[in-house]
Amino acid sequence: MPFQRNCRVIEVNQIANGLFSLVFDCSDIAGSTKAGQFVHISCGDGLLLRRPISVCDLDGSLVRIIFQVKGSGTSWLSERKQGEVIDVLGPLGKGFALDGSRLLLVGGGIGVPPLLMAARQASEQGKKVNALLGFADADKVILLPEFASACDWVEVSTENGSLGKHGYVTDLLISRLEANQNICDLILSCGPQAMLSRVAHIAKEHHMPCQVSLEQRMGCGIGACLVCSCGIKSPGGEGKSFARVCADGPVFSSREVIWDET
Length: 262
Ligand SMILES: Cc1cc2nc3c(=O)[nH]c(=O)nc-3n(C[C@H](O)[C@H](O)[C@H](O)COP(=O)(O)OP(=O)(O)OC[C@H]3O[C@@H](n4cnc5c(N)ncnc54)[C@H](O)[C@@H]3O)c2cc1C
Ligand code: FES
What we know:
alpha/beta; Elongation Factor Tu (Ef-tu), domain 3; Rossmann fold; 6 helices; 36% strand; globular; binds flavin-adenine dinucleotide
């Protein structure tokens, strides 16, 4: 059940170029959030809608989110100060199902933060967790120490070669699966749409179950307005139906998504 709470901001830090970490205090949200779920934050006074941001990490009653400044909402959020109060609705959506015993996390850019919570929850359950993380540039790299503490190994790529392997994170995925098909029994992925589509294709070629977290513009965030609808395959794989990314997702099996329509 989601809660709407006025939450005290504990800290806001810039952690990379254009990227901010914000920690707020809310025992109700912290106590009920699963990896892959998001919160919907009222960003500013007046006309602005809420903005969806994934939960990255939990520590007791503290909830950490990481966001990239894109427009007016995330810019307002980045200017919050310690002690201020923000209006947060959450947790929302369906998160990752941590099935399997060997998880491979594949994250790209601002899709990396929700995978940290998946890594922590899976490793607390005794699962083996590894991560492939891709960024555009070294100045956008985030959360490496946190992933290192939750995973057996972490491999990084940057598109310009400024840190880690030069190229896309999907290149790392292909290399790892081709070197050892048994490296994992489930892939969890979050990142830009083009990356997710490629990850889904690679997973299918290797007969590997894969869950992806999709992004859509959102209105209500609770399944009522249909702003976030996307086409998915009907059960059984034939025909098409619609899903609400906010309520039926944001996490879907990669096999259900109709990739050329997302
Ligand atoms: C389930 C979910 C989880 C998310 N988690 C995170 C997160 O952990 N960290 C993070 O930085 N961002 C996350 N986002 C994206 C974030 O919600 C948007 O960047 C934010 O709403 C932009 O608001 P704004 O007012 O700053 O920008 P706006 O002025 O509203 O938009 C600025 C630009 O961003 C694009 N944009 C806005 N919203 C979205 C969206 N939902 N998807 C794709 N493009 C968008 C617009 O098309 C425009 O080009 C998530 C989105 C969803 C749906
Ligand atoms: S945002 Fe309203 S139904 Fe999803």
